[in-house]
Amino acid sequence: MKKLYVVGNWKCNPQTLLEAKRIFGAVSKMVKERKSLETVLCPPFIFIPGLKGKKIKIGAQDCYWEGKGPFTGEISPDQLKNLGAEYVILGHSERRRWQKETDLMINMKVKAVLAAGLKAILCVEKESQLEGSLKGIGDFNNLLVAFEPVSAIGTGKPYDVNAAGKMNLTIRKKIKKDTPILYGGSVNSGNARDYIEKAGFDGFLVGGASLNPEEFVKITRILI
Ligand code: PGA
């Protein structure tokens, strides 16, 4: 049975560890553990040490490409791994926009994350980003790709399911046949099913709805 993924990206939320623990605890309590479902939450770096639970894997929202050294403010893949993180989101459109991340920078990050034995969730909106970010990478074993159309991110306007399905096929042609491809962009419990059943995705990258435990868990239930 193929594995499906629901990855929650908390972005720059919440404001306190107490609230982070409340959300995480509520999801942990309600979410079902299944071999065919991987539930991942990606909090801000600072909350990672405070969030532990058997049913939920932990991811980070970014990391640096160097392992250590004079890089003020950066976090390395090994530091994340040592805290128990297993996934790292890379190339999110918000970082491309606000931190001016380029495909070359994201490519270096993907390489560093894979070299550390972590799983990379590479966000792309178009083919050129996929190619640029995966340049020189031959081993896709720990890679997941998330199709994240900017028009759908944080807008409440999910991308057209047929168009998303076409993009899914386009991405699939460029990567291995068992690399998970997720959809991200205004996913909620009402629209999620179509992206699996009609557009053929292997799961979701969920932003806003991942801060609401009931809604997030409802999305996971669609996959089991
Ligand atoms: P959204 O965000 O679900 O709030 O649209 C998705 C994302 O940024 O990954």
Helix proportion range: 25-40%
Q: How many DSSP helices?
A: 8
Identify the bound ligands. 2-phosphoglycolic acid
CATH superfamily: Aldolase class I
Beta-sheet strand percentage? 15-25%
Separation of the first and last Cα atoms? 11 Å
Q: State the domain count.
A: 1
Which residue ranges are poorly predicted, with pLDDT under 50 across at least 5 consecutive positions? none
Determine the mean pLDDT. Answer: 97
Sheet with the most strands: spatial strand order: 1-2-3-4-5-6-7-8
Number of DSSP E strands: 8
- Overall body shape: globular
Strand-pairing-aware structural class = alpha/beta
Question: What would your notes on this structure say?
Answer:
This protein has 224 residues and is an alpha/beta fold. The protein has one domain (4-12, 20-25, 38-48, 75-222): TIM Barrel (Alpha-Beta Barrel). Helix content is 33%, strand content 17%. The protein contains 8 helices and 8 strands. An 8-stranded parallel β-barrel has the order 1-2-3-4-5-6-7-8, surrounded by 4 helices. Helix 1 links the parallel strand 1 and strand 2 (37-42). Helix 1 (17-30) packs parallel to helix 8 and helix 4 packs across helix 5. The longest helix is centred in the first third of the chain and has 14 residues, at 17-30. The termini are close together. The mean pLDDT is 97. Bound molecules: 2-phosphoglycolic acid. 2-phosphoglycolic acid is lined by residues 9, 148, 153-154, 184-187, 205-209.
